Amino acid sequence: MEIAARTGARLVGVDFSAEAVRLARELEHARPDAQERGSHFVVGDLTATGLAPGAAHAAICLDSIQFADTPVAAYAELRRVLVPGGRAVLTCWEPVEQGDERLVERLRRVDLRAGLTAAGFEQVAVVPRPAWRVLERAFWQEAAALDPGDDPALRSFHAEGIRSVATFDLVTRVMASATAPSGG
């Protein structure tokens, strides 16, 4: 929503969580310029967004590509929804060493460059973001240190904090960008 507000882009938000979509709609409708912006939020999947082919000029996938059951299909869906020449930006964690068995499977298999290239993207760039790691380390350390009590959501967050702190140095933070082929 922030990027759309700053750029004037029309936002189509896709999330697998109906509750996240509901909250996004609520937040968007509270903005004073919501009517003019025409943002739209839908429940969808990384491999089946429900968007038409070529529906977007740009796509942002924040910290979620690793959750796709079939990563190849997720990269292909990202490519499918972009117009020729459209840009994709993804953020994620990649293993310092591919296949590191100490990492959960979903992180072991992340390779943004390979995934985007295999999906037919061009001008693929994957850039480390070390400054982000400072904030993330503090975030996960705080999650690991909190007392979750009986709250199931806090217990889950606390457990993820413990896992993340334990494997933090096994992953690197990256941002990837790529261009859908122009055709021809």
Please specify the SSE layout and strand pairing.
Elements: H1 2-7, E1 12-15, H2 18-30, H3 34-37, E2 40-43, E3 56-62, H4 71-80, E4 82-95, H5 105-108, H6 112-118, E5 122-128, H7 130-145, H8 152-167, E6 171-179
Parallel strand pairs: 1-2, 3-4
Antiparallel strand pairs: 4-6, 5-6
Helix % is 40-55%
Question: How many distinct beta strands?
Answer: 6
Query: Strand order within the widest sheet?
Result: 3-4-6-5
The residue-averaged pLDDT reads 91
Approximate strand percentage: 15-25%
Number of domains: 2
Task: From the alpha carbons, calculate the radius of gyration and give it in angstroms.
Answer: 18 Å
Question: Main sheet, how many strands, which sense, barrel?
Answer: 4 strands, mixed
Q: Provide the CATH top-level class of the largest domain.
A: Alpha Beta
SS-based structural class?
alpha/beta
CATH superfamily of the largest domain: Vaccinia Virus protein VP39
SSE order, one letter for each helix or strand: HEHHEEHEHHEHHE
CATH third-tier fold name of the largest domain: Rossmann fold
Which ranges are low-confidence, i.e. pLDDT below 50, for 5 or more consecutive residues?
none
Name the CATH architecture of the largest domain. 3-Layer(aba) Sandwich
Q: What sort of overall outline do the alpha carbons produce when their principal axes are compared?
A: globular
Report the total helices: 8
Distance between the termini: 33 Å
